[in-house]
Design a protein that fits this description.
It comes from Massilia soli. With 401 residues, the chain is an alpha/beta fold. The protein is built from 14 helices and 17 strands.
C-alpha cells in the first residue's frame, strides 16, 4: 500500500525559443535557478520540509547525446543522493523540449528515440517506480505548434496535431519500455487541466472546440474514442486512420494515474473571434471532476502555486489552503485522489512571460526563494503535511498491481 503522496518539484523546463533578433536560445530553468550548482542543497530542503516525494527530471537535452549515447554523470549523482536521503522521485523525462540533434516535436523519429532513452534510464535506475514520461503533452504541443512560442514555433492546426501525436506516441512507447524493465512502475501523467468559458452565445462554437481540444492528448494516451468533430479535425490536419488506431489499440490505462495541474491561469473567458483572457471561476474541484468522470482513473494534484506573482506573501498561503480544500472535497466525494504537489521547491524564472522572453525575471512561486530562504508558503506546507498526513493516510490507496 502506498501512502498519500505529498510532493514538490524542481522546475526543469528546457524549450528552445526565438529571440527578437532571430537567434535561437535554449531556456534551461535548472540553470536559471542555480540548481546545477546547488542541487545537494535543494535536495536537503526537500527533506527539511518533511516531503518524501519529488517531481524531478534529468535535463534531457544534456543527457541524451544521440541514438544510444547518454551522459549520466549529473543524473547518477543526483539520483544517488535522492536514494540516500529516502526521497522518492516521480521522474519527469521530457519537459517541453528535446535535444538539439532531435530538432523539435515535428520529428517523426522522436517517439522511438525517446522510448529508447526511457528504457536506458530505467535500466540504470531500476529502483525507481514512479514516472511522468512526457510532462504536460497538451501544453508542449500547444505552445510549440499552435501558439508559436517554443521549439518549432508554429501556429497551425496541422503543426499542433503532428506535435500532439508525436508527444503522445512517445509517452506511450516510453511507458511500455519502462514497464519491460520495471514491471512495478506507475505512470503519473501530469497534464494541465483547462477550461474555456464562452463570453457570449456567439463564442460557444469556439469554446466547444477548445474544450474538446484540452482533452486530446489524454484521450489519445488513454485510448479514449474522441467525438466525431474531433476525429474530423484530426483527419483534416494530418493524422491518418492508422495513426489514430495506434492510440485506440494501445492500452496503458492499467498502469496510469491521472495528474491534474491547476493554476489560476488554467481557465479562460473566450470571445467569438477567439480572443481570450484568464479568469478563475470553477477551480480545481470542478475541472478535475470533469477529467475524472471522463477517464475514471486515480488522480493526483501534480502542480500548483501562487494565484499571483507572490509579491504578497499571503497569496501563497491562501492559494495552498484553497487547493488543499479542493483535494479534500474530491477525496470525501469518492474520487480516488492519491497525492498533492506544490510546484515548485524554489522560485522560477521568466514563467510570467511563458518562458518565451529571456528577461531573467524571478517569479515568486517557490517554497523557497532563489537564495534558498524559506517562504511563508513553505512553512505552511510543512505544517499542512505534519497536520494532515495521518488523516489522509487513514484510508490508504494502492498504486501497485
Amino acid at each position: 500500500m502506498q501512502p498519500f503522496l505529498f510532493a514538490t518539484g524542481i522546475e526543469n523546463s528546457y524549450p528552445v525559443i526565438t529571440l527578437p533578433d532571430g537567434s535561437r536560445h535554449r531556456v534551461d530553468e535548472m540553470e536559471k535557478t542555480g540548481h546545477y550548482a546547488r542541487w545537494r542543497e535543494d535536495l536537503g530542503l526537500v527533506k527539511e520540509l518533511g516531503i518524501e516525494v519529488l517531481r524531478y527530471g534529468p535535463p534531457y537535452h544534456r543527457t541524451h547525446l544521440g541514438p544510444g549515447r547518454y551522459d549520466w554523470e549529473f543524473t547518477d549523482q543526483v539520483f544517488g543522493e535522492m536514494r540516500r536521503l529516502g526521497i522518492e522521485p516521480i521522474v519527469d523525462l521530457c519537459h517541453f523540449g528535446v535535444p538539439d540533434w532531435l530538432g523539435n516535436f515535428q520529428n517523426p523519429d522522436f517517439p522511438m528515440l525517446f522510448a529508447e532513452y526511457a528504457k536506458a534510464f530505467a535500466e540504470r535506475f531500476p529502483w525507481i517506480t514512479l514516472y511522468t514520461p512526457v510532462n504536460e503533452m497538451f501544453v508542449a504541443a500547444n505552445f510549440s505548434a499552435r501558439r508559436g512560442l517554443w521549439n518549432e514555433c508554429l501556429s497551425s492546426d496541422s503543426g499542433f496535431v503532428t506535435a500532439t501525436k508525436h508527444l503522445v506516441k512517445a509517452n506511450i512507447l516510453a511507458t511500455e519500455a519502462i514497464e519491460q524493465v520495471q514491471p512495478d512502475s506507475r505512470f503519473i501523467q501530469s497534464e494541465s487541466s483547462e477550461y474555456f468559458h464562452a463570453a457570449e452565445p456567439a463564442a460557444t462554437h469556439v469554446t466547444d472546440h477548445l474544450n474538446e481540444l484540452r482533452f486530446l492528448a489524454l484521450d489519445l494516451n488513454y485510448g479514449y474514442d474522441v467525438c466525431g468533430t474531433m476525429y474530423e479535425y484530426l483527419m483534416d490536419n494530418g493524422m491518418t486512420r492508422e495513426e489514430y488506431h495506434f492510440f485506440l489499440d494501445r492500452n496503458v490505462r492499467a498502469v496510469c494515474i491521472m495528474g491534474n495541474d491547476y493554476y489560476a491561469t488554467n481557465e479562460h473567458i473566450v470571445y467569438p473571434d477567439g480572443s481570450m483572457f484568464v479568469c478563475e471561476m470553477f477551480g480545481y474541484y470542478v475541472i478535475t471532476k470533469q477529467y475524472y468522470d471522463r477517464y475514471r482513473l486515480p488522480v493526483m494534484h501534480t502542480e500548483t502555486n501562487n494565484r499571483a506573482d507572490g509579491r504578497n506573501e499571503k497569496d501563497g498561503r491562501l492559494w495552498l489552503e484553497q487547493q488543499w480544500a479542493n483535494v479534500l472535497r474530491l477525496k470525501n466525494d469518492g474520487v480516488p485522489i492519491i497525492g498533492f504537489t506544490w510546484y515548485s521547491l524554489i522560485d522560477q524564472v521568466d514563467w510570467d512571460g511563458l518562458l518565451a522572453v529571456n528577461a531573467g525575471h524571478v517569479n515568486h512561486y517557490g517554497l523557497f526563494d532563489l537564495e534558498r530562504r524559506i517562504r511563508p508558503v513553505g512553512e505552511a506546507y510543512r505544517e499542512l503535511i505534519k497536520t494532515w498526513s495521518g488523516q489522509v493516510n487513514s484510508g490508504l490507496m494502492c498504486l501497485r498491481k
